[in-house]
Amino acid sequence: MICNGGEMETNRKSTVKRRRPKGSGKLVARYGKWAMRWVANGRVVQETTPFLVEVKGDRAKALKMLDERTEIWRLKNEQTRLRVLIAQAESVEERIRKLQAIAAGVKPVTLGEFVDLWKSSPRRKDCSAEMLATYASQISAFVAWAGEGVDVRAVDDAMAERYARHLANKSGGTYNKHLNTLEAAWKAVGRSAGAEGNPWA
After folding, report:
1. Short-list 104, 122, 123, CA closest to 194
2. Are the C-beta atoms of residues 182 and 138 closer than 8 Å to each other?
């Protein structure tokens, strides 16, 4: 009896449908087709698939599509979380740099001060007033993007690469001119501003 009861219990359990993991969504029948439904940021999202309820094998295809959709949502959430963490890390690094500069008796140079420092430097390339204004405008565009209060020493290869991607939607000529100007500016006064190396090189 015990064996039979155990066998019956096993058979009963085998017929119970496995629940999908929390957050993975579910399929619902809608007008003869499988529709995907999941919760994203507290809001119910529903999308109808092209797969039919009555067609054998279509449910598996719909489940695969549902897994892909919810995975995209989970990855986007993770991407947002990581961006917040990166921003927090950069803020902490900036504070550390400022405190180290104070401890060493060195006055930090901010990007907001960088343009004037470059303009007054004898090391910068001599040019006409018109070209000087153009170069200053190109440097100022980066300063506006990064933030005037950012320490010049915080401009590293990673930040330079992010700004280059920011410029990527502009014309090739604009992209090259801006990056070439920044490279020349850092070459002229980057060291005196406390920068280590030239991230634009």
Report:
1. 104
2. yes
